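User: Okay, second chain of the day. Same drill as before: sequence in, structure tokens out.
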Amino acid sequence: MQHLLNPSDPVSKNGSCGFSDTGLPAGSVCLFAAFAPDGILPIFTRFYLKNILDCGFILHLVLSGETPIDKETIVFCKKNNIHVWQRPNGGMDFGAWRFLFQKNVADQAPYVLLANDSVFGPFRPLADVVKQAHAYTLPAWGLVASRLITPHLQSWFVGLSRHTLQAAPVQRVFSLPFEQMSRNEIIWHGELGLSVALQEAGVPLQAAWSDLQSPLARFLPTNPMHTHWYSVAASGQVPFIKRELLRNNSFAISNLHRWPEVIPPTSNFDHQWIMDSFCKNESRSAPAATTAKGRALYNVISTADSLRWKIGHLKRSTR
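Assistant: Same drill. Structure tokens below.
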């Protein structure tokens, strides 16, 4: 485990001391976990990192994998003042974030963003998304909140204030030995456990997109990044698509081929990056087994979701 690049200037990309334009407190840190078995940081992940830098974060990137990081990735990180760490793969994202917490890189940060490379995007500037949501004024905020299994913030993008992060229940979560856990254990003790800890600390679960109050989700909870992938991305509130969804489509969602439609023509995200990724054999864990009933349910909800969004968008555009 080593720190490969330590920029001499511990500030954001733009070197600013305050971020009144977005509300982000100076000195805020993003801990970004990326799986890099070949030592390469894909161009779409680099695009995502630039968006995080544009928000004003000090960025710590941890690459999990045994292969030495390639020169192009090192040059990119040096150019953008990104702190780069490498560690053996283990413990998934929570293992990577715990690794950085143990390095004390966020001890003085007034706000900490936890993010990972499990998505394609953003399809609109990330700084605009979090600014419009007043995310930095909230004790805990994510892009997506779901009722699946138990109410929780999806952990691929979660922001926590310093006070929230220091709460005892939250601290206990990040003290767990994730490197010794299976994938399912990490989901239960990490992603779900973090939201349980937040609620135990009296912190509400707030997000850009949420089904926590949805009557349908109370009876038929699903993963909204699968069932509502179209409207979630097209709305601009959560301008991302999960890589696992496009790579595996484990629920055999029939309208997934329409994914290019959710990327605005004005977006700086190049949809060809997604196309190119399909040609590569990504080494990722196999998707969970699904049932015929589950596939049917996800297809019905997904089809209705995209249709409802298109009808609503048509009505708005004709007013």
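The first strand starts at residue 2 and ends at 5.

User: Thanks, on to the next one.
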